[in-house]
Amino acid sequence: MTAARALRGVAYDCDVVVVGGGIVGLATAHALRAARPGLVVTVLEKEPRLATHQSGRNSGVIHSGVYYRPGSLKARLAVRGAAELKKFCAEHGIPHAVPGKLIVATSPAELPRLHELAQRARRNGVPVRELGQAQMAEYEPGVHGVAALRVLTTGQCDFGAVARRLAELVDVRRGAEVVAIDRRPGLGVAIRTARGEVLRARALVNCAGLHSDRIARLAGDDPGLRIVPFRGEFYRLRPERAHLVRGLVYPVPDPAFPFLGVHLTVGLDGEVHIGPNAVLALAREGYDWGVVRPAELADALAYPGLWRMAARHWRAGAGELLRSLSKRAFTAAVRRLLPGIEEDDLLPAPAGVRAQAVRPDGGLVDDFHFVERPHTVHVLNAPSPAATACLPIGQEIAARTLTALAGATADTAGR
Q1: Burial level of 242, CB count in 10 A (0-12/13-18/19+)?
Q2: Which residues pair with 287 in a beta bridge?
Q3: Phi and psi at residue 48, in whole multiples of 5°?
Q4: What's the CATH class of domain 3-53+161-225+367-413?
Q5: To pair with 293 at 20 to 30 A between CA atoms, which of 107, 117, 238, 386?
Q6: Per CATH, the architecture of 227-358 is what?
Q7: Two domains, one topology: 3-53+161-225+367-413 and 227-358
Q8: Would you report the helix, strand and coil content of the chain in percent, each value rounded to 5?
Q9: What does the alpha-carbon distance between residue 231 and residue 211 come to, in Å, rounded to a whole number?
């Protein structure tokens, strides 16, 4: 049965279909059921396993909300989300910790930006302490810096475990890749999967992450942007050198670039992870240079926004590319924070891919970005700290979806 034919009789299989079983999609389904217990919600996940992409390939850090523009969705939802996520982990027996972190200025030139971060953190309601060199050394004697910001509420958890627990609380269909969407005003949405299954729903929520712009186009909507995949490559320290790092250590970020820079994190497993950088991936799920999908790459290269973005950030991009291709260059960059390491101390670790929304003018979408259309809510930019903020993001999306459902019901009643 085609998606179009499925709408003719309008016999719904569920109230809401959530496309994408990552941590944001699962949290949205959970929030919908909590807000409206009788609601029938189905999550469609294209992979056979959960947390295969952004939800399971990250540094496992629960961000506190230091970096984000005061008043932005990222600032508000990260602060709230960090508290809610820690509570969720405690209630569901998911390992987590709250070690705090250091943001380290490695030169006097970075001190003004460090002070600005402290002011931003306080405006966002995040408790911080400004430390001198001697105080910083008490926390991280192996780390080089002239001053640091101690962020007290930064935590850690296994986001994959959070996703799997959320999946136990909702209805998830795995191996269900969406290939067609038919939406009719007043009738709802019909979604067809690669297996030929058709689901009819009153509303659709697009939480497809790396493929969210593609799903929007399948629904007949112009997302007004393009998802550009950036691969973040990690190393880990040799176990015998793990003593060089005690906790979570971040550099002062470049305010013109939406990435936090290469940082040092002692994971819950005791391993020290170093990274990530940020390089253009040659596929939306391109976790190394050997993964190339010509159609996806051609689509990205044909997008004017990509070239305008590259022109704006060519210097930073060239440095990221060099550090991807040269382990020596990557090591040299890490030595700014951790001068005691050698190239042989770094061992390969799994990479992740960040779904970054880019506007046609080359601007990087900085905040979470939702677009509402009839019967539909699209989540078109939800990179870090989306995992941290997944629970309140889910509540935000759920509220918008319930509004869409109310409108659809009124539209149907008026027919």
Answers
A1: middle
A2: none
A3: -75, -20
A4: alpha beta
A5: 386
A6: 2-Layer Sandwich (3.30)
A7: no
A8: 35, 25, 35
A9: 15
Q: Give how far the C-alpha of residue 401 lies from the chain's centroid of Cα atoms, to the nearest Å.
A: 21
CB count, 10 Å around CB of 146? 16
Closest CA to 279 of 320, 338, 220: 320
What are the tens digits of pLDDT across the range 353-393? Answer: 999 999 999 999 999 999 999 999 999 999 999 999 999 99
Which are the contacts of 12, defined by CB distance < 8 A and separation ≥ 6? 188, 200, 201, 202
**φ and ψ of 137, to 5 deg:** -65, -25
CB atoms within 10 A of CB 156: 23
Domain ranges of the chain: 3-53+161-225+367-413, 227-358
Concatenating the DSSP letter of every residue in 213-260 gives HHHHHHTT---SSEEEEEEEEEEEE-GGGGGG--SEEEEPPPTTSSS-
Spatial CA neighbour of 62 closest among 159, 162, 155, 160: 155
For 121-131, write each residue's pLDDT tens digit. Answer: 999 999 999 99
413 band by pLDDT with thresholds 50, 70 and 90: very low
Helix (H) or strand (E) holding 28: helix 23-35
DSSP classification of residue 274: E
Alpha-carbon dihedral 378, 382, 386, 391, rounded to 10 degrees: -10
